[in-house]
Specification:
Elements lengths: L4 H16 L6 H8 L3 H7 L3 H28 L3 H16 L8 H8 L6 H24 L4 H18 L5 H19 L22
Helix pairs in contact: 1-2, 1-4, 4-5, 4-7, 5-7, 5-9, 6-7, 7-8, 8-9
């Protein structure tokens, strides 16, 4: 399916923002990279802030559609194993070429007022992440899925924030250790069922 002009503008803006940062990317830069006129841009977006809101929404949807399949690919269908794999995935993200931190954390810092449209989108993303973790934790048998989700979200967000100030390998290793401890505390290990030994005939018939 051909990409619409609006979708192309969002994609171009997203890629530029991920590479250069929100503050450094302007409307003219997006227009030039997308190869459209200023009139075309403003037919789709009222302002740079409006564009950023749409980029944030696109990124949130992309993450929700991408992360779950990746975790299933790495950890299978067991929800506890998927939660453990979150921190391996973070390690991969932190070590990827061009990683520059969390776009949502950076956006919420640039638009700190709670009523700002950009801030509202970043806050909704946080709620989406917490809801997903809570759902997965409930399936995994967490004693208090809501409390677990809040704590795990803080570990993940803290790792993203510190990854911009410290060695990403160091941060990822600490986040994984804290995450594993959190999972062990909230979610019991799955029980391994042991089949009873069935005997046929007399005692000497074991294994026959």
């Amino acid at each position: 399916m051909a990409q619409s002009t609006r979708e192309r503008l969002i994609q171009v803006a997203h890629d530029l923002i991920m590479k250069h940062g929100l503050a450094a990317v302007g409307v003219e830069q997006v227009i030039g990279r997308a190869g459209v006129s200023k009139t075309t841009f403003y037919n789709h977006f009222e302002s740079k802030e409006d564009l950023i809101v749409q980029v944030m929404k696109w990124r949130d949807q992309w993450m929700r559609e991408t992360v779950r399949p990746l975790l299933r690919e790495r950890a299978g269908d067991a929800p506890r194993a998927q939660l453990l794999a979150v921190f391996d995935l973070l390690d991969e993200v932190f070590g990827s070429h061009g990683f520059g931190g969390c776009i949502f954390i950076r956006a919420s810092g640039l638009y700190p007022m709670p009523h700002d449209p950009v801030h509202l989108v970043t806050a909704q993303h946080k709620r989406n992440v917490v809801a997903w973790i809570r759902e997965l934790a409930a399936y995994a048998g967490a004693r208090d899925p809501a409390a677990f989700a809040d704590e795990m979200a803080i570990v993940i967000a803290g790792a993203y924030a510190l990854s911009q100030m410290d060695s990403t390998k160091h941060v990822a290793a600490i986040a994984k250790r804290l995450g594993n401890e959190l999972i062990d505390r909230h979610i019991p290990q799955p029980r391994v069922s042991v089949r009873p030994l069935h005997r046929r005939g007399n005692a000497n018939a074991i294994g026959k």
